């Protein structure tokens, strides 16, 4: 049996590894000639860590996951601590440590684990067709590929999503812009073992430790879509949006390299119930494009792969397995997309009264409520 996997990113490579572990031959196709990760880093929460271990790639997390042992929120002007607590109870309850990781390192190590030469690059899909014999796909270079079934892990702009759904769902602007990148850890800005977030005015500035003595940083600002801003205006833009914020924030802005800082207008897609059509299944962002506000996008793709692989371990009946996959995943991924959207709206001041109430709640936060919420999300995954 052979699977065609479209997409050589985190979801596609996780799926390929899961299927190979289930005894299924895989061909992996990637549209670009060279993968350049979107975004500087990614949060791998314990559910994602468990998935990586389940797939045999736990060593990647052990080697490259950042030492994030504490969590803190700071008031935006004076940097007064609103709440600060250990993440040890989260690790104890979930059986894994949160592991922020550089996207470039994660992508590189996953490619090496699968086999870089085993991914066919520069293969952009134009269409697919099903027959009694399986699935055939056509690429822009005129070539084709044939397999027994197809996994579409081709991202939030999926070319195969319309085939599965029968329509093209619109992307929804979440209302804010995110700047992100990597900088060397500076303890005068934030502790090197803590996720530190400055909040105020419906904005946030966040730093997470990743490997190599670096922070993954991001700035969020509610803004209209399509402003004429790019790397050339980076420092002036952030200095304007964060005028009056704490000295730590100003110091961070001053250290940024515009050439390595990303500016992204954040979108998601309204959840849909259909993840499968015939012998074609959506996986990862192709099936559930979310905002990054609860850090579950990559973890959800890994969960998809684990479920798919485990189902194929139990049965080689493609229709049965893909039907089960859809039933097992659709409620879970819908929940994650909507949770992220709800958190997005509170964090970014969609209803300013709710956002101000959240700031007040943080002053009384002991860590228990936040950790309970994280555990609820994490333990809803397939590996508990």
UniProtKB/TrEMBL annotation:
Cofactor(s) listed in the protein's UniProt record: FAD
Keywords: FAD, Flavoprotein, Monooxygenase, NAD, Oxidoreductase, Purine metabolism
Enzyme class of the recorded protein, top EC level: oxidoreductase
Reactions it catalyzes: urate + NADH + O2 + H(+) = 5-hydroxyisourate + NAD(+) + H2O
E.C. no: 1.14.13.113
Any Pfam family hit: FAD_binding_3
Pathway: Purine metabolism; urate degradation
Domain FAD-binding: 2-337
UniProt family annotation: Belongs to the FAD-dependent urate hydroxylase family.
Stated name of the protein: FAD-dependent urate hydroxylase
Organism, as annotated: Leclercia barmai
Organism ancestry: Bacteria, Pseudomonadati, Pseudomonadota, Gammaproteobacteria, Enterobacterales
Encoding gene per record: hpxO
